[in-house]
Fold this protein.
Amino acid sequence: MDESVLFSLRLSLQVAIAATVLVVLVGTGMSFILARKSFRGKEILDILLTLPLVLPPTVTGYYLILFMGRNGLLGKYLYHWTGWSIMFTWYAAVLASFIVALPLMIKTTRAAIESVDQNLIKVSYTLGHGEFKTFFKVILPLSRKGIIAGAVLSFARAMGEFGATLMVAGNIPGKTATMPIAIYTSASSGEWSKANLMVVFFTLVSGFFLYIANKLSKKVI
Amino acid sequence: MIEVRIAKDLGNFSLNLSLNLQKGLTVLFGPSGAGKTLTLHTIAGLVEPDSGTIRLNGVVYFDKKRGVNLPIPRRRVGYVFQEPSLFPHMNVFENIAYGISGLSAEERTRRVKHMIGKMRLSGLEKNFPHQISGGQKQRVALARALVTSPLLLLLDEPFASLDNPVRQELRLDLIRIREEDHVPVVFVTHDVEEAFVLSDEIVVLNDGKVEQIGSKEDIFYRPQTQKVAKFLGVKNIFLGKITAIHPEEGEMTVWVEEKGFQGSIPYREGAVVGESVHFCIRPEEIMVLKEDRPIKKNLRANIFTGNIVRIVEKGAEHTLFFKQNRDDYDFEISMPNIAYRSLCIKEGQLAKVAFKWESIWLIPEE
C-alpha cells in the first residue's frame, strides 16, 4: 500500500484521538458550568461555543488564523516568546478538530447533566458533600451515557474534519495531510485509484469505530 | 433547639415565619401551598430567605444582616424527600454509606451494617434501588440520612406516596428510631392522622404564616381559628348568634340560623347579645339518648330530636349522621362499636341526641 495513504490514516486517527481527549475534558467541564451555574454572559458563552456547529468550517478556520496565526491575537505572543507557531503543524489540525467537535460534546453532555434528578444533588449536599465530590460521585456517573455519546460524536466529527484543518494546518504531504485532505488532493489531481482506496479505507475505519461506539454505549445502559 | 425567623417572597407567594421549636418531633401541618416544604428548604439551606435568622442549637445557620449563610454540606441537617431519591447507580449499602466521611473503612462498614439491621434492611445490601419496594426505598433513604448522625432530621411528606399498611409500618419505625436516637425531627405532612400519631408539637401553617402552634391536644381539641379547625377536619363547626348570656351560670344561648336550632354554649368573657361566634363539638361528645333512661341535668340545655339519616362503620367505631329538619345533616356523631350495638339503632330511625354545653369549644378567632 502507498506509504502516504498509511501516513494520512495514522495522522487522522492521531488527530481525532487527541482532539477527542481534549473535547471530553474541556467539554464536560464546560457542560457542567453551563448546566448548573448562572452567571453574566452565560448566553454569550453558549453561543460562542455553539457557533462552530453552524459556521462554515472555513470561517472557523479563518478565526483560528486570526487568533493563532504568527501575527494573530494570541499567536504573536506565542511566536514572540518561543519562536514557534502552531500554524501548519499537526497540533493545528488537533486545534481545528477540537473547536468544531466541542459543540457536539457540549450539547449532549449538557443535556445529560441537566437531566440528572435535582433531588439527588440536593441529597448529596445535605449528606455533607460539596459540589466537587457531588460532581464526581453523582452527576458524572449519572450522565455517563451523554458523555460517551458526546465523545463518539466528537471523534467522528474530528475524523472527518476538513475545512478548518485545511485553513490552519495546510496540505503538507507527510506532515499535515490528514485523510480527508489527502482524498481531496488525490481527487483533484486525478489520482483516482489512490482516492478510491482511501475512500473505501476511510469508510471502513469510520464504520468500525461507530460499531465499537454503539457497543460501548449499549454496555452502559 | 431550632429558631427560625425568616421572610421569603416568591412573587405569588410569601413566607413569613417566626418559630421556636423545642420539642422532639414537630409536625408542620397545613394545606398544599402553605409553605411547609419551603420552610424545610430554608432550614436545610436549599433556599435562601430574603431576610431573618435561622439558628440550630445556638449556632447561626443564616443571618441576613450579618451576611451568614452556612453552606448546605456544613449544616448537618438530614433531609428525606417524598420520593426516596436514592442514587440509582449505587446499591443499598453504598447508598447508606454515601454520607459517611472521615472514618476508617472498618468503622464505616460497621456503622452501615448497624443501620441496615436497625432499619430492617438485612439481606438487601447488594440490591439496587430499582430492585426493592417503595417502603424499603424510603427506609434506605431514612438510614442514609440517620447514619451521618444529623443534628436535625427534616422529613418532607416521606410516607405520602406509600400504601397505607406500609405507611403505618414506617411510622412505627420512625417512632422507634426517635426513642433510640432522640434526633430532633421536623416532619411535614398534610395527613391528619399522621400529624396526630407522630407529633410532640404541631405547627399549623397556612398561606406562608403560622395559624397555630401547640401540642396535639391544643391543636385538635382547642383550635384557635376556624381555618385550623377546617384543616384538621374538625366536625360539627357552627356559626351561631348569641341570643342570651348567663355569666353566673357560665353559659350562653345561641341561635344557629343555618341549621335552624338553638343551643347552649359556654360563656365567654366580654360576650354580648347579638354577637356571632364559631363553636364546635367533637363527634364523640354527642350522645344518643335511650328512651327509657332519665336525662341528666347537664344535658338538658342541648337536646335535639330528629332522624339518624346515615350510619357508617369505621373500624372500631360507628359514625352516625343526625338531622333535625333542614337539608343535609346537623351533627356527626361517633361512638365505639360496643355502644352502637347496645343502642340497636337503624338508618332512618327517630332519635334524641344531646351533649353537655361544657364540651363545646368556642373558636376564639378575632
